[in-house]
Design a protein that fits this description.
- The protein is built from 5 helices and 6 strands.
- It has helices at 2-6, 43-58, 72-82, 101-114, 127-134, and strands at 12-16, 63-68, 86-87, 120-125, 143-146, 154-158.
- InterPro entries: His_Pase_superF_clade-1, His_PPase_superfam.
- It comes from Noviherbaspirillum denitrificans.
- This is Histidine phosphatase family protein.
Length: 161
């Protein structure tokens, strides 16, 4: 079971942001620094993010560093679930800018290959980023768990009910 494996630490958890308001992508002319211009978490998404953190705490799963895309829905997911996060542009969406896909995915693969820690690493990002790295499709709030040091080695998925 994936939850049991996470107790040993060192895994990479790719989390898609929690449930958002209806829509795809962001409104035309959105600004990263202004949450009012973006598609944000719905009230259900805020509950889902909090529940994710509770599931980790209730199961005794330690989380080390939490990194997130700069999009407000990702930052909010990370902070509601795990209390803090560091924005890392490598996790930013390339949905509207596919020419960034190869560079960002390559940087992320390199980072995961070199990741050596006893702590689980949480990376909160977007569907397109997770699919580019793993080939997996994930629902809002779903987590793809990767083996330490192996960017394409999926151990399993976690879904908050």
């Amino acid at each position: 079971m994936v939850w049991e494996q996470l107790r040993t630490g060192g895994y990479i958890l790719l989390m898609r942001h929690a449930q958002t308001d209806a829509g795809v992508g962001d409104p035309p002319g959105f600004t990263l620094g202004d949450c009012r211009t973006q598609r944000n978490l719905s009230s259900e998404g805020r509950v889902q993010a909090r529940r994710t953190g509770e599931m980790f705490r209730n199961r005794g799963i330690a989380v080390g560093e939490v990194r997130t895309s700069a999009w407000c829905r990702c930052v909010d997911t990370a902070t509601l679930a795990f209390d803090n996060a560091v924005v890392w542009p490598v996790l930013n969406s390339f949905f509207d800018n596919p020419e960034r896909r190869e560079r960002q995915t390559g940087e992320l693969k390199d980072y995961i290959r070199g990741y050596r820690s006893r702590a689980n690493l949480v990376l909160v990002t977007h569907q397109v980023n997770i699919t580019a790295l793993t080939g997996e499709t994930v629902a809002a709030g779903e987590i793809v768990v990767l083996k330490p040091g192996e960017p394409g080695a999926v151990v399993g998925k976690l879904k908050v009910p």
